[in-house]
Design a protein that fits this description.
This protein has nine helices and eight strands. The chain has helices at about 20-40, 50-55, 55-65, 85-95, 120-125, 165-170, 195-200, 205-220, 230-235, and strands at about 1-10, 45, 65-70, 105, 130, 150, 180, 225. Strands 1, 2, 3, 7 and 8 form a five-stranded parallel β-sheet that branches. Strands 4-5-6 form a three-stranded parallel β-sheet, with helices on one face. The radius of gyration is 17 Å and the shape is globular.
Length: about 240
């Protein structure tokens, strides 16, 4: 089984706490440490805003050998944007992020991306899109013909924070390749914030322990771990 751990590197729990960046400041270092300890190379889908405000955090993940991907500029939902604004979001974020290294993978915020905008990713030099989600109704909608490798997310991030008795059988039932995602803000204690329950439950140290357990679960089953760029290359072979 092939597994990819991905990180949506963004403001805190948008749109609820999107003016805060505790996840980048507090959660991201703990996440980097976890990946170093488990030997995992992840893909960080990063907003242009984060790259602008926290360049040292972006350099740290690149220097650690993780793939840098694109998540737009402002974490806006692309299905609320007209085409010129969508193009600006893609091209501006790509230009800023490519100052740090190669960027060929894209994921739309909220995993919402209109099919007609796929060609905007081609125009901007992307090779892979991970904006689809198998657990969303839109996954079954007709697809735009494209040269991009399109590799969907397998499961929403809050599932990883469930107790192991519920979580582990669910994860092991997922089809190959398994693409999981987390957010740095999940590794900050948000349990007392006025948020939707799925955004705040078992956040902080518990979430970090759960992610470590998930990685160990797949390792114990002999899974191989890949960045999204690597998955794209494997699917093309």
């Amino acid at each position: 089984m092939r597994v990819s751990i991905t990180v949506d590197f963004e403001p805190d729990c948008p749109p609820y706490l999107s003016s805060a960046f505790r996840g980048i400041e507090e959660g991201a270092p703990a996440l980097l440490s976890l990946f170093a300890g488990t030997g995992i190379a992840a893909t960080y889908f990063t907003t242009g805003e984060v790259a602008e405000r926290f360049p040292n955090s972006v350099r740290a993940l690149v220097d650690a050998g993780h793939e840098l991907g694109c998540h737009g500029v402002t974490h806006s939902a692309f299905d609320t944007l007209d085409e010129p604004t969508a193009r600006w979001e893609i091209e501006s974020s790509a230009a800023r992020l490519r100052e740090f290294g190669e960027v060929t993978s894209f994921r739309a915020p909220y995993l919402r991306f209109p099919e007609p905008y796929v060609r905007l990713l081609e125009d901007a030099g992307f090779a892979l899109d991970s904006s689809l989600a198998k657990y969303k109704r839109s996954y079954r909608a007709p697809r735009q013909p494209t040269t991009l490798r399109r590799i969907p997310a397998s499961m929403t991030s809050s599932v990883l924070r469930l107790p192991a008795l519920v979580r582990d059988p669910w994860l092991l039932s997922l089809a190959d390749p398994v693409v999981l995602f987390v957010h740095p803000w999940e590794f900050v204690d948000l349990t007392r914030e006025r948020l939707r329950y799925d955004c705040r439950f078992r956040t902080g140290d518990v979430a970090l322990r759960c992610l470590r357990e998930v990685i160990q679960l797949f390792q114990s089953r002999g899974a191989s771990f890949h960045t999204m760029r690597e998955l794209g290359a494997l699917s093309a072979a």
